[in-house]
Amino acid sequence: HASSKQPPLPSPLRFSKFFQSNMRILVTGGAGFIGSHLVDRLMENEKNEVIVADNYFTGSKDNLKKWIGHPRFELIRHDVTEPLLIEVDQIYHLACPASPIFYKYNPVKTIKTNVIGTLNMLGLAKRVGARILLTSTSEVYGDPLVHPQPESYWGNVNPIGVRSCYDEGKRVAETLMFDYHRQHGLEIRIARIFNTYGPRMNIDDGRVVSNFIAQALRGESLTVQSPGTQTRSFCYVSDLVDGLIRLMGGSDTGPINLGNPGEFTMLELAETVKELINPDVEIKIVENTPDDPRQRKPDITKAKALLDWEPQVKLRDGLPLMEEDFRLRLGVDKKN
Length: 336
Ligand code: NAD
Ligand code: UDP
Ligand code: UDP
Description:
Catalytic activity: UDP-alpha-D-glucuronate + H(+) = UDP-alpha-D-xylose + CO2
Distance between the termini: 52 Å
Number of helices: 10
Number of strands: 13
InterPro entries: NAD(P)-bd_dom, NAD(P)-bd_dom_sf, UXS-like
Function: Catalyzes the NAD-dependent decarboxylation of UDP-glucuronic acid to UDP-xylose. Necessary for the biosynthesis of the core tetrasaccharide in glycosaminoglycan biosynthesis.
Family: Belongs to the NAD(P)-dependent epimerase/dehydratase family. UDP-glucuronic acid decarboxylase subfamily.
Protein name: UDP-glucuronate decarboxylase
Mean pLDDT: 93
Largest sheet: 7 strands, parallel
Order of helices and strands: HEHEEEHHEHEEHEEEHEEHEHH
Structural class: alpha/beta
Bound molecules: nicotinamide-adenine-dinucleotide, uridine-5'-diphosphate
Helix content: 25-40%
Radius of gyration: 20 Å
Low-confidence stretches: 15-19
């Protein structure tokens, strides 16, 4: 089916595809943490054909192993900074490293992924007339001066800092989405995702929930970065995926915040992990990294009203589900 020069289908035909035949869906970054859970959910619908394009920088085939060989599934090794010529009806554009240690590892590549990668996916969406959803981030609010953060807040972002490749990159990606929407009439959706956790997170990606759970299971001290009073709001991955699918299916372009409004300090998170997973470990305060936002909590009024969405899984219920997955991967028994 992949043909480079095929013109977009005339709109009545394209429209009918939404009601009659299969929906062909591209998920960029589908081998990653959120992407692979999204693929699982999309594959449950027998009318969906799913194509994943991923360069395996932070993702892995392992996350998709149950779909490899399935007739409705296809996996392509592809870097989104290169053009991609395929025919699809919808694009979930997730490709981008999400964890600070990975996006800071090659910042120039990160910004290329955000800017050129998003441009390419918009060019593809334009050519084939697909609806495209961008997974933006709460980092577009930077170190916010408004709390909690509504979508109307423009943010407080350092343009030349070490996180800028990611947060400014996502801000440009959002700009590109809206310019293609206004200039070329593209159907766009933008989700601003707040911290998400769950099974299949990279064990050593340096993020706070994966760090604390791995440390608790290995019997190491939980490393709270100073001062420890900074806050985050953690959304379980199944809730997040549900929000993404509702956003894609709905009629609002966004941006829409998707996150769990339950707000915790990093010290509270450490106490909770200690209590639930390993009461014997210590909590120690270590040095923080530059530009660390002091507080973050989504205002999800818009998602509730427009998508009828709100998270169902509480932190105390989600952490044990992630613990199970980490135990298996780290080979640590329950008795430990
Ligand atoms: P992840 O690192 O697990 O997944 C990203 C995937 O993109 C990986 O499979 C990686 O190999 C792939 N990728 C990276 N660069 C690529 C490129 N140039 N070409 C093709 N593939 C590429 O991260 P995640 O947590 O699953 O995040 C998915 C998306 O959600 C990202 O866009 C991220 O910015 C966004 N997001 C995540 C969170 C979170 O808390 N996890 C929060 C806000 C936004
Ligand atoms: N593009 C792509 N797949 C397509 C169509 C376009 O990857 O099916 C890329 C293309 O290489 C270009 C980008 O998307 O770099 C933007 O495309 P657009 O047509 O909007 O702009 P133009 O090619 O006119 O600069
Ligand atoms: N953090 C921590 N200990 C760790 C890793 C992170 O206390 O081992 C803190 C970090 O300083 C930040 C918060 O946890 O305040 C969330 O960090 P993460 O990298 O998970 O996400 P982000 O900063 O992107 O929200």
